[in-house]
Each structure stands twice: as structure tokens, then as C-alpha cells.
Known about the structure:
Low-confidence stretches of chain B: none
Number of strands of chain B: 9
Largest interface: A-B, 47 and 44 residues
CATH architecture of chain B: Alpha-Beta Barrel
CATH superfamily of chain B: Fe-S hydro-lyase, tartrate dehydratase beta-type, catalytic domain
Helix content of chain B: 25-40%
CATH topology of chain B: fumarase
Distance between the termini of chain B: 38 Å
Oligomer: heterodimer
Radius of gyration of chain B: 16 Å
Structural class of chain B: alpha/beta
Order of helices and strands of chain A: HHHEHEEHEHEHHEEEE
CATH class of chain B: Alpha Beta
Number of helices of chain A: 8
Shape of chain A: globular
Number of helices of chain B: 7
Structural class of chain A: alpha+beta
Number of domains of chain B: 1
Number of strands of chain A: 9
Strand order of the largest sheet of chain B: 2-3-6-7-9
Largest sheet of chain B: 5 strands, mixed, barrel
Shape of chain B: globular
Strand content of chain A: 15-25%
Number of domains of chain A: 2
Low-confidence stretches of chain A: none
Amino acid sequence: MRALADSLLELIRRTSAEIPDDVRRAILRSLEDEKKGTIAASALKIIERNIQLAKQKSQPICQDTGSILFYVDAPVGFDQIAFSEVARSAVTLATKKGFLRQNSVDSLTGKNDGTNVGPGAPAFHFHQRRSPDIQVRLVLKGGGCENVGAQYSLPCESLQANRDLDGCRRAILDAVLQAQGKGCGPGILGVCIGGDRATGYELSKTQFLRMLDDRNPHPDLDRLEQDVLKTANELGIGPMGFGGKTTLLGVKICAANRLPASFFVSVSYMCWAYRRQGCDLDAEGAISQWLY
Amino acid sequence: MIHLTPPFTEEKIRALKVGDEVEISGVLYTGRDAVHKYLYEGGALPQEVNLRDGILYHCGPVVMRDEQGGWKVTAAGPTTSIREEPYQWRIIRDFGLRGVIGKGGMEGKTLKACQEHGCVYFHAVGGAAQVLAECVRKVRNVHLLEKFGAPEAIWEFETERFPVVVTMDSHGVSMHDTIYQSSQKALASRL
């Protein structure tokens, strides 16, 4: 894996500076939908120009370069410890080069040592599989959108949300209402119905690995995704909460088994600066193909 | 589009209304969590910093050294403002701020201070780090860098046509309240 360090550095640079095409297309579509001359249209124009500038200058799309989340699919026998060590060094180097902000703080002392490496940072999610290929995906998720994520425990009387799909819909739409523009909308929701508190949130974030224009293979979840997207965009919250037609760019929902006693709906919010990228690696660790 | 230039007088600020799109040219001071808590608790402002009739920007920029030993801003979008809600009113009152720039909006205490002391809340486009960094023509200085670290320090930016929207004005009106209420009503009819 001699090429791994360079590949991960490039993956971080590209994720931080370049919005994936599916997201960019969705933003351009929403710019067409907004009425000309509105504040919403101005905001989306600034967003569009920002996307171009960041790519052109190879600089962070957003200065909050976020929580660094690696998702690695690898064959049996893959050395996870060695990978993590190389990835940590790549993160520190990417920070020195300005692809990432000095963004990781010791929660007890408040110190920021400028490396972006520490307990829990960056985060690694390894998945073993039978295929010999190695795929690395990276999500950079800023704090503004992370702060508006929400977890609901059903039934929830104040929302009249019962333990059924309508209750889930009520909970998810409440999260949209509470978030307003604070998560840097137009946003993308990743949702998990079920699980425990920790796995619920974790699985909700894996939904951000899906393509924005894909469809959920499960018909009930697909219906719920389309319904929440349409309804959220009728609320008039708009880009940045300035009012307008585009409150969300996408909704992605999965389900996990739960205990009889628990029914969680975990909602993660991703800002418009939806930084996710991924690549296939060859046996040397060189990038053989980009995934988004 | 309104072009706001120094001096940022009370008269110019009082003339602004919610929904106005504004471009600001002039000096902006950054300040986020550490600075707010520090000033609120009675910490001294560095002598060279004068916030009177000034504008404070909730921002933790990415700043690099350039070849000449100066500073270059490479990313400078707004950070979430609501975290400063406990502190902002006193900083507006005691330091004479005329404007606060951030994202996500603020609440009652800040809105009241804006009304009482002649200040507005400007909303910048969150995440637009590159467009906004381009509007920073020069980094004039940095203060409290050692104490708070780069994202939390007070940076002095000279800006040109920095784009914002007035979302809380000095007349007690908040776009955030209005849109929350209308969206809540719209949602209720769709449940």
C-alpha cells in the first residue's frame, strides 16, 4: 500500500474543495425554481459561485471542514490498524496544507493542537466483505448542520407522533421545522427509523453515502422520502431560512430493527455544502476510480 | 442592493429593514465563542480594537501566512450565531456595535439590544467560505491569537462588497420569527 498516503491526501483535498456532481445538479435545479430577484435566488447564486471558486482554487468549500468520517469497505485480512495510522497522518498533512481547518478540540481542556487527530477524531467505520476491492468513502460534516440533528423517541405526545410511519413523518418534519435555516439549507436529511440511540444516528449518516437522485428500493420508505421532500419544500423556509421554495435537496431514510421498548427516529441534517467523495483503491493503495 | 460604507452611523443602521440585501465595504472584526464569553465576563478588549460603530463578524476563518509574511484568508464564511445569544446583548450595549454578521439568526435578547442601541443582524450565506473570503481585501491585524487560537482570535478584515441580508433590524422585526411562524402554520395544515 505504498500509494495509500497520497491517495488519502487527495481524497481529503477533493472532498473538501469539490462538491459531487449530483449535489451540484440539485443546487442548479433549485436555483432555476426560485423566483428571480428574491433573496433565496441571491443566496443560491452565491452558493453556486462558491462551489466554482472552491474547485478552481482547490480550497475548502466551507471553512468548517467538519467531522472527518471515513467509511472503508475492505476484504478479509485487510490491515485496519495500518490504514488508520496512514489516514491519521494524511489528515494532519491535509490540515497543514489548508485543505482542512484546525478543527479538533480537546473537550476537557479546550486545547486545539492543530492536527485534527485525537480521541474519536477522525472517525473510522470499517466493513469487511468478500469482494477483494477496497473502497474508501469520506464525509466531512460541519458543526452547524450537525447541531440541528435530532432524535425522537416515539410515541411523542406533543407531536401526536405514534409508532407508525405517520409518526415517523411527523418527527422528521418537526426536525425540518426546528432546523429552519440554521443547518445551512437547502439541506439533505439522512434518517434512520429504529436502532438504539447510537446506531440510529450512525445509520442515519450512512444515508449520506447514497446518490442524491437514487430511489429507495423499499416502497414504503421511498414513499416517505418523496413525501417528506415535497412537504418540506412547501413550508417556505427556503435557502438559509430566507424564505423560498428550496428547503431540502433530498431525503434518505433507512430502517433498523429496534427493541420492543424503543422506537427512535434519528435525523441527521447535511448542509448544502455536502462534502462526500470516495474512491476505489488498487492493491498498492492508488486511486483507480472515483465513486461520485 | 444597498451599499453600506463607513462610518457605520446609527442613522444608516436605523434606515435598514428586514429583507434588505446589503453589501458592506469597510472593516469587520471577527469574534466567536471565546471572544464573546471573554468580553461578557469583563475581559479587556485589546487597545487597538475599537468596536464602537463597528461590525462584529461571527467567523472562524482559515488564515495562512503568505510569502511576504502577511496573512491570507483562504476561507471565511459565517459560523452559527445562536451560541452567542447569552452574551451578544451586553457586547452591543457596552461596546457600541452597529452590526453583527453571522448565520442562523439570534433571539429575543439580541433583537431587543438591536432595537435599544441601534444595531442590526446581518445574515451571510453559510458555507460560502470562498465567495466571502474573496471579499476580504486585506487582513489588517490579528488580536488574541495566542490566547484563543486562529479560529477564535479577533481578525481585522478590510472588506469590499461583502454580501449579507438584514434578517433582524433595529425596529424589533426578525425574519427568523416571521418565517418560523409561517412555516409552522404551513406544516400544521399538512400533517
